[in-house]
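At this stage, I put together a protein sequence along with its fold in token form, as given directly below:
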Amino acid sequence: MTTSTRSGPAPAAARPDRPAGPARAVSDLAAAASSEWVKLRSVRSTWWGAALALGLSATVAPLTAVATVGNMQQDRIPSADVPASEMAVYAAVWAAQFAVIALALPVMTSEYSSRSVHPALQAVPARVRLLAAKTVALMSFVFACGLVTGTAGTLTAHLVMLHPLIEGYGTLDPAEAAADVVRLSAYLALVAALTLGAGTALRSAAAALAAVSALLFALPAVLVLLGGRTGVYVAERLPLSAGVSFVDSAFVMGRSEAALPPGAGGMVLLCWAAAALAAGALVLTRRDA
């Protein structure tokens, strides 16, 4: 008499755990950022915002060049060379920037309003990593958009200034133009990060828009109108003025004695963006989604 024994399936080979450390953290962040990029590019508002920024830059930059040269020809302002790239910087700060803010606002606020933040947190339970991934995806996209819009604004402004009626005022130095375009792209990317941080902290598109608009535009204007060295000094350390100092364009806002040097302006703007993201991360980790 024989006895047969049934054996279960052979156990699968255990998968070795990935080693912990910086390499794993970078790998996890890259995977989360890739997922966030898929979500970002699949939303129509992203591409509408990018198209609006491109259209505004390509339209406002040449119009600004014409207006600037016209004022010089009528002796309203001192005559000087008008770099085409600085016209693109002007268009980015006073026009394309609004499209970038509108593009960045729904990146987090729309997930709160639609409750899609719940599956997002299930996919990436580490909340700080989720916000970091959104920041990487958003800033990379906005920086690339800034390169395109800045180049378009520079070229259209230069072409307009070749017209015989305003010829002789415009200049285009490739090295300076490239530096201006890179700086304005970094500026727009940091503004997008600041907007994302505000949206994450406030959880409302309307509230975040009001806060960002007040910080960028209303508060500096109020401080300058109030007058006094202290008000001007503080205004120059707010995000807009610090960003203008960073892009180093005299045509955007003029020069001020209290203005920061370009490097310091960039660091101040970076600190504002980091503070907004830190506030967003604090709210995201401490409050229920």
